[in-house]
Structure formats: structure tokens, C-alpha cells
Amino acid sequence: MNKNKEKKYDNTPLLEKVIFLMPAFLLTSVSLLLIYAEASIISPTKIFTPLIVLWSILLLLIWPIQKITKSWASTGVSLSIVVVGFYLSETIFYIIAILYLLSFLSLFLIFRIKKHKPKARTFAITANFVTLVLFFFIAAKFIPVISDVEWMSYLSTLAHSRENLPVAHSYPNKKPDIYYIVLDAYARSDVLEHYYQFDNSEFISYLTNKGFFVPTKIYSNYPKTILSVTSTLNFDYPQEMLDGVDRARLWWLLNPAWHNSRAQLFLEQSGYTSISIASHWDLSNNTETDIYFKPSPIFLNEFDGFVLAKTPLKLFQPALNQIAFVPSFQSHRELILYNFDTLEKVAEMPEPTFTVAHIIPPHPPFVFDKNGNPLSPDYPFSFIDETSIPLTNEEYRDGYTAQIEFINQKLEVLVDAILAKSETPPIIILQADHGPRRVTDPSSFDNKCQNERFAIFAAYYLPDLPENPIPDEITPVNLFRIILNEYFSTGLPILEDHSYTTINTTSPFQLTEVTTQLEKDCPVILSDSKE
Predict the structure, then answer these.
(1) One domain, residues 248 and 365
(2) How does 180-209 read in b/e, with b if 16+ C-beta sit within 10 Å?
(3) pLDDT tens digits, 39-55
(4) Which helix (H) or strand (E) is 353 found in, with range?
(5) Cross-strand partners of 359
(6) Chain segment 355-366, per-residue pLDDT in tens
(7) Contact call for residues 438 and 196 (beta carbons, < 8 A)
(8) What is the mean pLDDT of the chain?
(9) Is residue 508 in some structural domain?
(10) The domain containing residue 288 runs over which residues?
(11) Is residue 219 within 8 Å of 393, Cβ to Cβ?
């Protein structure tokens, strides 16, 4: 009898097996899609890695569960229990629980009325149907967002920008290494003094004594990292460079322009090795360079960390930390230090290099005190700023300025090391993407402090030039135009300086010009709570 049962079980049709197993895999897809809906600032391609990993775990569980239960129906139920227990965020858990309960209750009542005993296969088919409907319902929410983009125009102008590269009419005798170090939310000295009661003159003196030019009237072109750095690396205004995106609500549309920027492509064609260093902020994590440095073979990106934080999988994070680089306050500290260490090592490479590094501090989270001692904020790890960060204005000011002091120390050590190790004097760009947001009100366009947000720190080391070509009132959109003109004779025209702010947090290309508002003073807030 046992043999007959075993034989019958072994002959279960493939379609029957798929029907029983499919709900677990569909549920996993639904869960990730809902989580992505909360973090859709990043590319949807970031879903695939966690999806493959979670599906692989389910596939590995099929054989042992089936051997124990001796039933494909029970195996499918067991896999679904795994998904419900570990893969679902709280939101999707309740949605699924309610939908399944209503569906199975309706099914049970129908069979009760007809006086038939429902089969496991019927329940599995119902679960598949309910989950598929939910999947397509969630996916349908993205259709208006996707349709806001004129894709042919966008892709055409993106390709054109990559093909329309500057032409070098001369080259330096020895090509200097070029370092573009983005210091996130680092404010200009006068802003630090006025709004934060912080004197940065000692660090500025160090830089000028080393031969850096530190502009005192520089303003950013944009208040957002992705817009600002994309503009700098492509020496153009993104809303003018890319067509078909006027109504777009997808921030990741700027990623290709950053990760294969005109500056990077030009320098690669000119014999440079392009280098990037890992960042937990996914939009700046550029893996498209010749060399991509990361601190661990298994490096979880921002979305991977978001999945962990939103699901019971976070219970496994301590174990995962032993084999992977998982977004957390601790790993954020380690990654910052890793960036500085790696930049020093780049100076030892024999070939000419173009390196872009995104140093998150002094932007929150505040994970270092002024001496570099670790801090662990009492809120979940993220890169939130503005009123979303649960700190008083005094706490924000103290955390921000302490982190500046520590970063200044690291920058001094780094600059000394790069200059000492470089056979050919390098080009070093230290530049913020935008300023901080302590005295701004992000919920009100009228109350935004453009002076604090746009007045940025910058320092440029440009060797072997007879005089400094950088104007004191430069904006970053013209930086690489000037550098490429001076060192490669590209003859690029200098653009008019304009600054634009986003009208809302969802649409990167819906902008309004604020150039005339940048010097307007804002009230200094000393102790009001940030709600």
C-alpha cells in the first residue's frame, strides 16, 4: 500500500505541482512590489536581486518539505507559511490575510451549499487567482507614472548626450588624476557661521595653504543630489539635456546620465580609468565605471536594506551582517571610512584615473562625533532629512557641525596623502551637491530657505595653470566645462548660471528658478522643535 501511495504521489502532474506551489512565489512578488511602491525613487530593476534570492530560498525548501509532508498540497501551504511569516511587510500581511480569509470563506460556503467537499487543488487555484489579481492591481498603480514619460524622446536625447562628447584639441604632457569628491549637504562657510554658529575658517585656511581655490559666492544649481551631481558631471542642466520628462515622477531616470556621464565617457576616451566607490544611497552607487570598489563581495543596496527593514527578515540581520554589508548605522560608518581609505589607494595606481566618490556626511544620519567616535541614533537607519528627522534644531545643529569637524579631519589626511602619493599633481574637486535644511520648511515652497540650501562648500586644486580660471561666483554646471577647456582645450562655451528648485518631492523635472532668491537671508532658528 505504501508503495502504491508513493507511486501515485510521484506521478502527480507537473501542472498540479505548479498550482500548489505558485501562491508562495506570487506572494513574494506582491510583497516586493508593494515595498518598491514605497521606495520608487530607485530603479525597478533593483527588485530583481531580492526577488531571485527569496525565490531561490523557496526553491531550496521544496525538496525537504515535500519529503516530510509527502504531499504537494502541504508543501505549497508550508511555503506560503514561510512567505507570510518572513517575506511580507505588515501592510501586505493584513491585505493578504483579509483577502484570503474572505475568498476561502466564500469558497467554503459555496461548497457547503452544494454539499461537496472542497479539494486542496481548488483552494490553491483560488489562492493563485487572488494573489494574481492583487499583483496586477498593484502593478496597475505604476501605469500612470510610467505613462508620464515620453520614452522615445527620453532615450533619444539620453543617447545623443552620450554621443555628443567634447573634442580634445590637446592633452597634458602627463595626465593628472582627477578626483571629484561629493560632500553631501556641506554648507558654505558664511552659511555655517550665520545659521549654525560654526567657524570653518581653520579648515578653509588649511585648503588655501595647500593651493586650493575656495569660492566664496558659489551656489548649487539644484537642491537635490541626483539633479546636482548629474548636472555637474554632464556640464548641462538636466531638464534641458533630456526630453520627454517634463511630467516624470521617476527620479531614477537621472541615473543613466550620472552613471555614464559625459565627463566620465570623455575621460575614458581620453585614456583615463574611471573609478567609483560604493555608496548605500542607491542613486549614487555607480557600478558602470571601469573599476567599482565595494567593501564586501555581498553588498546590499538601499532597496535590499529597505526590504529587510520592512519584513520579519530583519530578525536575520545579525547573522547576515557576518557575511554581507547590510545598510545600518554601523555599516554606514564603515562605508564612509572605506571611501576615504580607498581614495588614498587610488593615488597609488599608475594609470591616470577619474574617481567619483559620494561622501554622505555631513548629511544625516549623524553617526560620528567631532572626534570620529561612533554615534547610534535612536531612530531607524535612513538618509531622511528635513522635518522627517526626529531631532530638535539644536540637536540637528550640533550633530551636523560635529560631523563637519570629523569630515574636515578626514579630508585633511586624505588631501595630504593624495598629494604625497601622486607622481603627477592631481586635480582635486571637493564640492557639495547642496546645502543643509535646518531652517527650511520643506512642506512650504514659500518658506524654503534657498540661501541655506543652495550656498555650498567647494574647493578646487587645479595644478599647472598660470592663474586660477574658476570665478568666485561659479555654479557647478560650469565646473567641468572650465576644467576640460583648461586641460584638454575642448572649447566648451560657459553657460549662464541658474539655480532651480523642485516644486514638490515627487517630480524631479518640475522646477522653478530661484536664482534671484539665493542671497535672501532667513530667520535663524536656535531651539524650536522639528516636528
Answers:
(1) yes
(2) bbbbbbbbbbebbebbbebebeebbebbee
(3) 667 888 888 989 998 99
(4) strand 353-359
(5) 183
(6) 999 999 999 999
(7) yes
(8) 87
(9) yes
(10) 182-298+335-416+438-452+481-517
(11) no
